[in-house]
Amino acid sequence: MNFRGSSSDEPEINLIPFIDVLLVILIFLMLSTTYAKFTELQVNLPSAAADPVKDRPAQIVVAVSADGRYAVDGQSVDGRNVEALAAALQKAESGQDQPFIVISADATAAHQSVINVLDAARRVGLNRITFAAQLPSPGSNAQP
């Protein structure tokens, strides 16, 4: 005689231990990942090996010196703030149809000085911007 009833228990898959293991693996990977440090980058600026421009459209050349002074089309800008630079760009832009802004910054110029030029150009409404660079010298270690 069989006193046991028919057992129709279906096997269950318990997901909680699986989730626990995946969580531990995720935490381990997050803690063991090394992140790149931007201070370790070796950057040599500015030099570029590009073809020279054949035709010259209307352009405004903005020079940025190493100590943060500006010159727009060869004329020195009084002051080092964005408002003075925007006024100089507005004056240089008058009479030209959508000129290019050529930023010719010293290789050791502060990043903020170049950002000020970009901000001043945006305020004036000039959105065609390019950067000037020189060809690398034959003995330099800059790569094209």
TrEMBL record:
UniProt family annotation: Belongs to the ExbD/TolR family.
Organism: Ideonella dechloratans
GO cellular component: plasma membrane
Matches recorded under InterPro entries: ExbD
Protein name: Biopolymer transporter ExbD
One example of a Gene Ontology biological process annotation: protein transport
Compartments, as annotated in UniProt: Cell membrane
Gene3D superfamilies: 3.30.420.270
Lineage, top ranks: Bacteria, Pseudomonadati, Pseudomonadota, Betaproteobacteria, Burkholderiales
Keywords, ordered alphabetically: Cell membrane, Membrane, Protein transport, Transmembrane, Transmembrane helix, Transport
Pfam families: ExbD
Disulfide bond among keywords: no
TM region(s), chain numbering: 15-36
Coiled-coil residues: none
Entry annotated with the keyword Transport: yes
Membrane topology field: Single-pass membrane protein; Single-pass type II membrane protein
GO molecular function: transmembrane transporter activity
